[in-house]
Structure formats: structure tokens, C-alpha cells
Amino acid sequence: MFVSSTPILHADLDAFYASVEQRDDPRLRGRPVIVGGGVVLAASYEAKAFGVRTAMGGRRAARLCPQAIVVPPRMSAYSAASKAVFEVFRTTTPLVEGLSIDEAFLDVGGLHRIAGPPETIAARLRARVLAEVGLPITVGVARTKFLAKVASGVAKPDGLLVVPADGELEFLHPLPVERLWGVGTVTAAKLHALGISTVGEIAALGPDALVAMLGKAAGRHLHALAHNHDPRPVQVGRRRRSIGSQRALGRRPRTPDDLDAILASLIDGVSRRLRTADRSARTVVLRLVLRLRFADYTRVTRSHTLVHPTADTEVLLKAARVLLSAALPMITERGITLLGVSLAGLGKEDTIQLVLPFDECEPGALDTALDHVRDRFGGKAVTRAASIGRDTGVSVPLLPD
């Protein structure tokens, strides 16, 4: 039986939100486009050429690219485009693992006899997405999920790159360390300070040396990736690992009471989604985008892990309020442009271990009643008194970590 040496595709739509806007409005094609005002949610490659990046403050983006056209987000259009693209994925192979609204892994190792080699399948997929959905997409092809994702990153935008099985390390080792999963700004700075700038230089180090430099988990992780050790298969039907929501707040100062009202509204929404999906969460994550001098920005994340997983709104809100309270001095000093909440450590709600003593009232009874009211009469049928008359910002899609 033939076994493909490069059976995994990583397909990633190019500047997805901005590409949808350019597809739907011919006047935007070939021009720099920014989706979102106060915070950049997406930028076309024409805007990226001027240094505009996702999550950048809107004013800084306008200074870098004053000729950019700023458009408001249209989540319904992006959702429809994503569904159409994933339909192309699933008619290419049943083995599809979605990573986000605009990217997925596809296992095509068993399709050689009926569909040709992986590079042929990838080229056909790109052509179909362009013809049927009208969007450019980049595909990386390799034996492992990690290397396929690296290949698509190198091939962007609107490209196709196949890494042959006998040339994996020759392709990987000259790349900068930032191409490795888990190497962010902080880790990259540590490695550069030690004179390490390429993946090959990491591979030349033993695991013990990397552990001494970066810690046990990070050291072993990077050592494995630098040698392209990634045994993970494509997982079909994989359930999402977090649920979140966030609000762009603009540049107007916000009082602690304002932020608390916004936080409560966010928790109400995400906890309802949690219960609708029959899930529970153990970790509450607070996400902030703070202003710095010269209209720059910085992203801050704080998290708290509960003793027991829950879908109870008040328990989750209490944990989120603790995180927000701890961040208030920083917010007061710098200002805030975005506030978000994610719930992680998700599990099935019916597997929660009940904790004694039990409350007299059935746990979650109020949440269930409110969910029924909102399901019947709309999400705004019942709201918190603290939210009445307040500007609670604009809901925006979650920004990448």
C-alpha cells in the first residue's frame, strides 16, 4: 500500500477578514485595507507592507499607513466565508482539523490513488477556494503538522510550499527561531542574547542545555520541534479548548465601575455559550490591550484556575473580578482600549464532580432561567442594571494570542 511521505496540509486563508472585504468591494482590491478602528482586527497585505499589524492601535496604524481604508468588521460575512471554505476542505478529505475560523490541517495521506500526490491535491484545493469562495489561500505540505504550518507561513501570501521528506531539516534549520511554535518575543530575546538565531542552532544544542536555558517544558518542546519531532495526528471533530468574547473600548477613559459592568456583560455572554454547549470551564482568562506612550499598545493576559470546573455565571464572574481588580492600577496608569474574557480548561458539564455541602437552591437554576428568557426573547431581553445607560464598547472577534 502506498503511504504518502507528505500527507498533511496546513491551509491558511490570507489576511482573512481584509480579503473578504476586498472580495466583496472591488474598490478595495489592491489597496491597503484595515478592518476595525480603535484596534486593528485585520490588515490586508498592502497595509502590512507599511508595518500595520493585527491588534495594533488604530491611531498608530493610521500614522504608518495614512492612505489605508478603514472598514468596520462584518462577522456574518466572515462566518459565511469560513463555512464555504471548510466545505471545500471536507470535500477534499474527511480528515479535517479546524484550528480557527480561517485555518485547518488536512490529512490527505490516503488519497494518492484517487486524487494524486499531496502537492496536486493542495494545488487543486487552492484553485477551488479561489474559484468557489473568491479568496486566496496558502497551503503548506509536510509529513508533520508542525512543519506543514511552518511551510504555509513561509509561503504566504497566496502560495504553496511542499517540504519533501528527505529535505525537512535542510528546510527547517536555516529558519529564524521565531518560526518555532512557542517562541514569542520573550523567548526569542533570551535566545538571541545567547547568540542563538536559527532553528539549526537550537537543534545543535542538547536537550539538557535547552532545559537549563529555558526551563524543562520549553526546553524539551523546542528541542523536539527543532528536529521535526511531532507525532500528533490530524484530529477530526476536535472540540474547541476555549470560549471567549471581547469589546473594543476606543480611547475614552473608563472608570472601574464602567469596566466592571463591561466585564459582567462579557461573563454573562460567554457563560451562556458555555452552558449551551454543555461545557464547563476551570480557567478564567482576562485579556487587556493597554495604551502606552506615543499611542502604542501592549497586550496583557491574566488568568485564574478554579478548584472545580463550573458553568456558573457568578463563580466565573467572581474570578474575573479578582483579575480585573489586580489589573486596575496598570489600567489607570496607561489606559485601556480592549477588554476580553476567555474560559479555558473546558470539559463536559455532566462530568462535573458535585461538591458538598449543597446549596439550598439548585446550582445554576438562575442561570438556566435567564438562558431560557434570552433564548426566547433575545440576548438583550435581560441585562444587568450596571449596564443600563453605559457605553459598553463594540464586540469584536477574539484576537490571536
Structure notes:
- Its EC number is 2.7.7.7.
- Keywords: Cytoplasm, DNA damage, DNA repair, DNA replication, DNA-binding, DNA-directed DNA polymerase, Magnesium, Metal-binding, Mutator protein, Nucleotidyltransferase, Transferase.
- This protein is of the alpha+beta class.
- The protein folds into 3 domains: 1-164, Alpha-Beta Plaits (2-Layer Sandwich); 173-226, DNA polymerase, domain 1 (Orthogonal Bundle), CATH 1.10.150; 242-396, Dna Ligase, domain 1, CATH 3.30.1490.
- The chain is built from 15 helices and 14 strands.
- Strands 9, 10, 11, 12, 13 and 14 form a 6-stranded antiparallel beta sheet that branches.
- β7 (137-142), α7 (145-155) and β8 form a beta-alpha-beta unit.
- α11 (207-214) crosses α12 and α13 (256-276) runs antiparallel to α14.
- Mean pLDDT is 85; it is low at 351-361.
